[in-house]
Fold:
Amino acid sequence: MKYDHIFDELDIVTDPFALCELRGASDLGLGRDASATLHYILSGEGEISLRGRAPIKVSRGMLVFIPALQSHALHSFGGNNHPIPECKPAALKLASLMAGSEHVESGQLTALCAHVTVGLRGIRDIIDVIREPMIEDVSSPSHMRPALQALLTEVSNPSLGSRAMIRALLMQCVIEMLRKRLSGEGGAMRWMAALADPSIWNALKVMLDEPGDPHTVESLARNVSMSRAAFAKRFADAYGSGPMELLRDLRMRRAGDLLGMTDLPIKRVADLVGFASRSAFTRAFEAKTGQSPSDFRASRHVR
Structure:
């Protein structure tokens, strides 16, 4: 299947927000972001732990993409590692997130962290239909290695335009990660098949545009002039699961945005994402994120 037309219409935004430094054996929790998060490991060895998943081993030269609303934490093993040039997060207007002891002489895990949003055909955050973490090891020669070497130079020697350059380099890496998975075998990017099917794309666009509307399998099928059974089968074949499962994910993603970016009452947030009651919304949100809406909002405002 050809995906060139999809990449032509992608609008990728990367927003570097922090440099994380873990000295010695230590942990740094990163909570649940309403946007996807990209980590580039600059130095050290450790792992990224995710709620309900096996930890991801990380080391210098690895890129790890964490989908939206997935709670995760960085853990440093504290072993010896190759030093890197001194990074200057303040000069790049990046938060400096630190864990461990200033007096620990063993290895340090350092990661550049960025929020990622990807739009398609005018629709924001199509990337959120990626449910699994994406992992890329670029410690050995690869298409991404020159970009990441340039990124390290910008982080350690910031100058005019460095933050914009870092965004551009990270965007290049995200495109390469997507391109590699689309051209490979397996179902890691199976959802992209939906974008090549006009009927499924039109139904997906309806859900992306208005996730809070009272969609059903029947209403979505009518929207694309298909029978319920034919639509459900074609959607599952293209996307890998039913439309209602995707709709739940999109609603939680929209709720995360509203909780983090507005002061709307939680009952109003529940209404906007398609829930008849605050209690039903709270149960669904907790099941997805492990936090109540109130706790999630408080954690966004603290950062």
Notes: The first helix runs from residue 4 to 8. The chain has ten helices and ten strands. The CA atoms of residues 211 and 251 lie 6 Å apart. The two ends are 42 Å apart (CA to CA).
